[in-house]
């Protein structure tokens, strides 16, 4: 087994139609309650949460897995499902190494379900589909936190029949959109055949199965990205530009490659000439905390991709959400400025 150091944490984006349960799914994985703090339970920002491998394995209920996987954890990105936020979904999709497309099994496919699939197809991002809210199927007998098959086998024949019907409607919709898929336990190669996992974000049923499939995909991702240079210059995308009391203008960003250190010179995309500044502080949310609601950031001197952090630096006014942040040295500065200038034209 390869040593676990210096491996890039895979970025997993959760996408889908409004209210289909993206934030609830992350709440279940984190053991948090972010949804209840959202106005009208509508997500309006891209979020990011680091979930360590130990927390994932814990939810799978099989500690022996810790030796099997070399992934250090997963960085989950939450996206809004409301139709107004296509830009944020595209940004999340562009950052993702892997994705989870969530669909309410009782409502079926909706416009933003299809939009999410299109974004992922455009970026060639591997993904799984979760058919959520199985606990709302009439007559469902909930089995808290159970693997899907355990729960399925405890349902009456009639309820199993209802689930199967709704489930195969999801498979049929995927087919109509150009994807061959099947129930995840019948899929051998998740990169060619989409695995569909029935879950409930509220009762936790099917969550162990989802996490196992994600770990398998993440492992594949890492194996094909071992060339990743953990000591290379940091590269990230700005999620949000925020005014913070005592810090002035700050950036919430996802560092998706390399290293970012306090004191580094960074080049930040903006509508005019890119900003050149020095990192004054790096503030990291706690593990399992959503960066959007975190209030106990920890100051750190160095972070390695992939990670969501808040940074403070002088002259950040005018920084562009969705723009790049790149670390530069005296030798690379001119080239990096040019690169960031070109990237802004694509935002
Ligand atoms: P946006 O971020 O606005 O796109 O919504 P979302 O996809 O994050 O949905 P959210 O997690 O906010 O859930 C919407 C509503 O559905 C909330 O009231 C949740 O409690 C409820 N919900 C989510 N998942 C489930 C589930 O598995 N079962 C049941 N019964 N309710 C669920
Ligand atoms: Mg949400």
UniProtKB/TrEMBL annotation:
KW Zinc (keyword) present: no
GO molecular function: GTP binding; GTPase activity; translation initiation factor activity
Residues holding GTP: 16-23, 78-82, 132-135
GO cellular component: cytoplasm
Record-annotated Tr-type G domain positions: 7-223
Keywords on record: GTP-binding, Initiation factor, Nucleotide-binding, Protein biosynthesis
Family to which this protein belongs: Belongs to the TRAFAC class translation factor GTPase superfamily. Classic translation factor GTPase family. IF-2 subfamily.
Function text: Function in general translation initiation by promoting the binding of the formylmethionine-tRNA to ribosomes. Seems to function along with eIF-2.
Listed name of the protein: Probable translation initiation factor IF-2
Organism: Methanococcoides alaskense
């Amino acid at each position: 087994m390869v040593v676990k150091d210096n491996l890039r944490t895979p970025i997993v984006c959760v996408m889908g139609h409004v209210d289909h349960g993206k934030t609830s799914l992350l709440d279940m994985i984190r053991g948090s309650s972010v949804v209840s703090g959202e106005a009208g339970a509508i997500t309006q920002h891209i979020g990011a949460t680091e979930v360590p491998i130990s927390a994932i394995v814990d939810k799978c209920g099989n500690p022996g897995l810790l030796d099997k996987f070399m992934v250090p954890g997963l960085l989950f990105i939450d996206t809004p499902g409301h139709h107004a936020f296509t830009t944020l979904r595209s940004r999340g999709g562009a950052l993702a190494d892997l994705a989870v497309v969530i669909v309410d099994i009782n409502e079926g496919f909706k416009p933003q379900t299809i939009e999410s699939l299109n974004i992922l197809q455009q970026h060639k991002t591997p993904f799984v589909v979760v058919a959520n809210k199985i606990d709302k199927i009439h007559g469902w007998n909930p089995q808290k936190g159970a693997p899907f098959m355990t729960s399925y086998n405890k349902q009456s024949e009639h309820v199993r029949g209802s689930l199967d019907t709704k489930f195969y409607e999801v498979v049929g919709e995927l087919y109509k959109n150009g994807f061959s898929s099947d129930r995840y336990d019948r899929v051998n190669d998740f990169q060619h055949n989409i695995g569909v996992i029935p879950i409930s974000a509220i009762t936790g049923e099917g969550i162990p199965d989802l996490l196992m499939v994600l770990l398998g995909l993440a492992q594949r991702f890492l194996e094909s990205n071992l060339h990743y240079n953990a000591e290379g210059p940091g590269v990230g995308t700005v999620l949000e530009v925020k005014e913070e009391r005592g810090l002035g203008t700050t950036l919430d960003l996802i560092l998706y490659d390399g290293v970012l250190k306090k004191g580094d010179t960074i080049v930040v995309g903006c509508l005019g000439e890119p900003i050149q500044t020095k990192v004054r502080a790096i503030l990291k949310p706690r593990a399992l905390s959503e960066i959007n609601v975190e209030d106990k950031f920890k100051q750190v001197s160095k972070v390695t991709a992939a990670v969501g952090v808040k940074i403070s630096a002088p002259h950040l006014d005018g920084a562009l959400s969705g723009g790049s942040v790149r670390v530069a040295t005296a030798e690379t500065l001119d080239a990096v400025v040019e690169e960031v200038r070109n990237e802004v034209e694509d935002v």
